[in-house]
Write a structure and sequence with these properties.
Layout: E1 12-18, E2 21-29, E3 34-39, E4 60-66, H1 84-97, E5 103-108, H2 110-121, E6 126-132, H3 139-145, H4 155-163, H5 173-181, H6 186-205, H7 220-234, H8 243-246, E7 256-261, H9 270-278, E8 282-287, H10 297-314
Helix pairs in contact: 1-2, 4-6, 5-6, 5-7, 6-7
């Protein structure tokens, strides 16, 4: 059973100016190691210190990127100039700025979405992919989360979610919440962020979610994260329907390890299975007891093992 590698600190920090945004990037591990870029989820969640520890610091040059408006990138929560195409361009800019020829893409949930889209746009710049809880950003995936799917698993929490939204707006819950989050009423912003956090937290964390642990006073950081997440959701993630599966031919040669928890209610395992059927050089590893989040013994073991395997494959 593999565990996280010991904590390690960045040896370099960058702040790249991009279209009115300042994108925060850190590097740690071995400057001469296999380049790997960690792509966080959300959208809007940002990177965490423990994300460095999925990788052997002796074998990897570890690059963590806080996407536009997220984490330590500023202005935090900014939706202007913040689209999927912008994020893909940022990644290619960062790769060039860091003088990396090719890198491994490691992402979960929305991070897996971004990894797939970047790889399909720049396949010759990619060594391979490690994807957790792949999210294909189809209409059916969004509807599963809010509309015709997981609310059957948590009907009580869904009812509470609906009751938090004015009745005339309940058939357009996400646009309504997004309008609150982008409006001038600070109280409405915080209420919307809390409403979203209560529902999304239940789905993402599952049975271990404790709503009482959410602070009554919603922080500005929580508002910012909800704004970014819903900005992408209401805009259908700024990509055509089913484009990821349709473009899999561009990356069919790349090695990929697809890791998915069987108990994932945020991104059902069907998404990774669809990818597996389209990517002949992929391996699908379904974890019977794992859910969505990148924690727990089973998930940690699988992610660290996948990173270790890729390091051995690409180490010079």
């Amino acid at each position: 059973m593999r565990i996280l590698y010991p904590e390690n600190e960045p040896y370099a920090i960058h702040q790249f100016k991009r279209d009115g945004h300042q994108v925060f990037v850190e590097e740690c591990g071995n400057p001469s190691g296999v380049p790997v870029v960690f792509l966080h989820g959300g959208p809007g969640s940002g990177c965490r210190a423990y994300h460095r520890s999925f990788f052997n610091p002796e074998k990897y040059r570890i690059i963590l990127v806080d996407q536009r408006g997220a984490g330590r990138s500023v202005p935090r929560g900014e939706v202007f100039g913040n689209t999927t195409a912008d994020l893909i361009r940022d990644l290619e800019y960062i790769r060039r700025a860091l003088r990396i020829e090719r890198w491994l893409l490691f992402g979960g949930s929305w991070g897996a979405t971004l990894a797939l889209l970047y790889a399909q746009r720049h396949p010759v710049k990619v060594l391979g992919l490690v994807l957790r809880a792949a999210f294909l950003a189809r209409q059916r995936d969004l509807e599963w989360f809010v509309g015709s799917g997981v609310e059957r698993i948590y009907p009580e929490q869904w009812a509470q979610f609906m009751e938090s939204i004015p009745e005339p707006e309940r058939n357009r819950s996400l646009p309504y919440l997004y309008s609150c989050l982008t409006g001038d009423d600070e109280l409405a912003q915080r209420r919307a962020a809390r409403t979203w956090a209560l529902w999304s937290g239940q789905v993402i964390v599952g049975e271990e979610f404790d709503p009482s642990e959410l602070n009554e006073h919603v922080s500005s950081e929580e508002v910012d994260q909800a704004r970014i997440e819903l900005h992408y959701a209401v805009n259908r993630y700024f990509i055509p329907e089913n484009i990821i599966l349709e473009q899999c031919g561009r990356i069919r040669h790349l090695p990929a390890i697809l890791i998915h928890g069987r108990r994932d209610l945020t991104c059902p395992v069907e998404s990774s299975f669809c990818l597996y059927k389209r990517l002949p050089n992929s391996e699908l590893r379904i974890l019977p007891n794992a859910g969505h989040i990148a924690s727990g013994e089973e998930m940690t073991d699988a992610l660290v093992a996948a990173a270790d395997e890729m390091a051995e494959r690409f180490a010079s």
